[in-house]
Amino acid sequence: MRKLKRLLRRLLLSVLLIIMAIIIINTVSYSSKQISVSTFNKFKISDDVIQRLSDITKITTTSYPSHVDTAAFLEYHSYVDSIFPLVDSLLKKTTVNQFSRIYKWQGRNPNLKPYLLMAHLDVVPVEKESQTLWTEPPFSGKIKDNFIWGRGTLDDKVSAMGILETAEILLKENYEPQRTIYFAFGHDEEVGGKNGAQAIVEYFLQKKITFEYLLDEGSLILENALPGLTRPLALIGTAEKGYCTLNLAVNLEHGGHSSMPPPETAIGILSHALATLEDHPFPAAISQNAQELFDHIGPEMSLPNKAIFANLWLFKGILKSQFEKSAASNAMIRTTIAPTMLEGGVNDNVLPTNVSATINFRIIPGQTSETIIEYLNKTIDDERVKVSRINASFSSEPSKISSSSSFGFNALQKTTKEIFPQSVVAPSLVITGTDSRFYEPVSENIYRFMPVQLTNDDLKRIHGIDERISIDSYKTMITFYYQLILNSSI
Length: 490
Ligand SMILES: [Zn+2]
Prior knowledge:
The chain is of the alpha/beta class. It has 16 helices and 15 strands. The strands form three sheets. Strands 1, 2, 3, 6, 7, 8, 13 and 14 form an eight-stranded mixed sheet that branches. Strand 4 (143-144) and strand 5 form a beta hairpin. Helix 2 packs antiparallel against helix 6, helix 6 packs across helix 16 and helix 14 (407-419) runs antiparallel to helix 16 (471-488). The longest helix is centred in the N-terminal third of the chain and has 27 residues, at 2-28. Residues 120, 155-156, 189, 217 line the site of zinc ion.
């Protein structure tokens, strides 16, 4: 008996030692996917760019669901044409639906497939109640404390301005690209992109123009993004989540007087369904996209996090729970469920017959809106709760996952390393929607990345209060586009 116990103890010890050995070997041999680039000498960008971004911020190209501020968009275009005379005269401009713009910069080598740099010109409105909460008025374009303040300085007029500033600088230097470059700036991204991005894609399809790669907004460079990673994390979005809004409705034949309520009411049934969903979130999934992200950031982590990433066969659960700690990282590993509206009831003494809830889902690649509906019906498991689609303007299935070894990704990775040498570059999933979701018919390689380094706190400024960009960040952004164009022109 004692012999057997000793034998078992030895066996257990051996198994533990083997597991330890595997963990150590995997961690030590976990090799970096970061590329090394030669030192990049930053060049000086003129201070004039600051005033021009400030001026453009003052033009209120706000998107409203109901209408377009015609005068503002026209003012925007005439101002841009006047400040970039070389772009205006040397690049071919095409206007789409009055306010969206395509620029074509002809390359010398017609055998090279063109690429496309994108941005959107519209901004979200500023609610009346929050206007006074801004340090500087949202459309003041105030230049103060080394920042340019206002709507659009992060999302996303700044990208369009950065791209055009870069083109003007290069044209002044008599630069001629080998590869044709297009710029496409939609005017209604914030309300769904149907008249802007979607119409631009139709134009490209008509002209049979396809792209080697394209770059839109989406991800950024984040400071202190994850525990164990001290370097800034440059996330290049290789995919974006789908968007689906569903209606949950309970329609009972009898409502009745609130003085004699039945055991179950329409509000009770719907509330129960919503609580069930909250208790049963979609399972976390390490998709191909997430796996690629982990493979790029894991080797750059300090211990013990590096060991966790290197041994997902054992530590997958720990990693998932780390990602679940913040709402932003949680959204990267699962389809999210967000109840956004509730409707029902007419009076405090009447039991309603019809009540409904609106729920917004952001779908990870690998699932579809159809599988979401199936999951809901199975989880709620109550025939009285009817699930139906709401045709929201942002509705879309998850995007395809673009390659993290294509010409375009390599150009972006190289440029990022040159301009932000400290950064860890990784492919990632964008949890919000961008105009680029319309572009799958014209390019296999779609990337979403804005070359700006922000803190987690700064992220709240996007669509929020005190949107601003530092002068240094804006100049760095122009340097990035400059270098990206050089790196892509081969
Ligand atoms: Zn945007």
